[in-house]
Amino acid sequence: MTQTQTDDSQRSVEGSSGDTLPQSQRNACGSSGNCVEQAQNDSKQAANGLVIEKEKPSDQPSQPSKPESSGKKPRIPKLVRIVGAIALLAGVGYGVYRLFFYHPEPNGLFFSGRIEGHETDVSAKIGGKIASVAVREGDDVQPGQLLVRLDDADLQAQLQGAIANVRQAQERLERYRQQLPILQAQLQQAALTTEQSTQESQGRVAEAENTLAADRADLVQAQANLKLALVRQQRYRKLFTQGAVSADSRDEYDNSAATAQAQVNSARQKVLSAEGLLTQARSTLRNTPIRTAAALQIQKQIIQARTDVGVYQQAVRDAQATQAQIQANLNYLTIKSPMSGNVITRDAEPGEVIAAGAPLLTLVSLDRLYLRGFVPEGQIGKVRLGERSLVYLDSFPDRPLEATVTRVDPKASFTPENIYFKKDRVTQVFGVEVTLKNSQGMAKQGMPADGRILIPEASQIHSSALLPSAIGFLTP
């Protein structure tokens, strides 16, 4: 503050001191100037105090005023009390929520659907009249348990006729089988009478073959000698031409070659003669079946008897096959459960006449129950076949059942096939099936249930996790 400002303040105080004096003081002072002078002094002191207070540096902290009485406690501001109460109530409410109401959901992909099962229609392989039905809807059945029985009166009569046909065919077969040993004995006797002539013919053939073999060996030897003689003849002719040998030597080897040629011709004639004798011996051997006509006739009878045996063997097999077919049809009249499950529909009653293949009962397998639901198109890419899943039933929400993803539909549902806008694509869903590993008797077909596919990389942010952070800001 400048000196000019201080002087102006003093003048302002001095100028106003006479005006601000109360009326009672004016009357007491009267016409004397003492009162006026005293008032002016007081005004100057007040002005000087004001000036001194304004000239104090602003960075010096002001001294706190001492409490009038040390026995009184400081009062807490109202805003602080409100914030503290709010924080206290929030903390108590969060504790109650976490203790009684908060149930954190584990990570995973959630969906809802219904429990379904693989259904099997039980039918009759042949038609007939229903005699009895042993089960009703809702009954549990085991493999091999009797379900339906058809009337078997007609098939029993057919079975008796088939048994009689089998017996008759077997008797005929036995009669022809007994003829075979007799015919075989006759054939053996005829064979003994022709054995001697057969051996004689075989001896002649063997002698002729040996003679032929010897003559052929002689022919080969003669041909070898002729070849050697011709070579020597040729050699000595060249030597004679050259004057190395005499004419007698040449003539000697010419004579040797001619002699060797004659021996070859003679050996050939012997071979031809031996071949003729062998042919004649063999012809006598071929005449044996003519001399054994009786034996041949017996052989034909044996062949015919064997043929008849084969025919009646086939007749027996046909009769037995007919009997087996009728017996199988009788077995088909008793319809048993092919699996363990539960009866969900009963379409036949006793006394009805049904056709072959007509459904009588419908069973659902309790060992292969599955939850079918739908997953949004935006999350279907996280689902893989074989992933572990949990199924929650409304009746047992705290006892999840183990399951496995076994099917993901290849196409989306609930929307048209061709979608070109993003806002429409997000409404598509894909069907998903998770098969229960063990229903433990709690899951039934048609029950609503919730499923959770455990995806390891999935992370979900729960809204309840934000409440502790909010309370952290309120608490000091």
Topology:
Elements: H1 3-17, H2 23-29, H3 34-54, H4 78-101, E1 109-116, E2 119-123, E3 128-133, E4 140-141, E5 146-150, H5 153-193, H6 195-242, H7 247-286, H8 288-291, H9 293-332, E6 334-336, E7 341-346, E8 353-354, E9 359-364, E10 370-376, E11 388-393, E12 401-413, H10 422-425, E13 429-436, E14 448-453, H11 466-474
Antiparallel strand pairs: 1-10, 1-14, 2-9, 3-5, 3-8, 4-7, 5-6, 7-9, 10-13, 11-12, 11-14, 12-13
Walk me through the structure:
By secondary structure, the protein is α+β, with helices and mostly antiparallel strands. It folds into five domains: about 5-55, no CATH class; about 75-105 and about 460-475; about 110-120 and about 360-455, Elongation Factor Tu (Ef-tu), domain 3, CATH 2.40.30; about 120-150 and about 330-360, Beta Barrel (OB fold (Dihydrolipoamide Acetyltransferase, E2P)), CATH 2.40.50.100; about 195-290. It is about 55% helix and about 15% strand. The strands form three sheets. Strands 1-10-13-12-11-14 form a six-stranded antiparallel beta barrel. The protein has a four-stranded antiparallel sheet with strand order 2-9-7-4, with no helix packed on it. Helix 1 (about 5-15) runs antiparallel to helix 3 (about 35-55) and helix 6 packs antiparallel against helix 7. The two termini are about 45 Å apart.
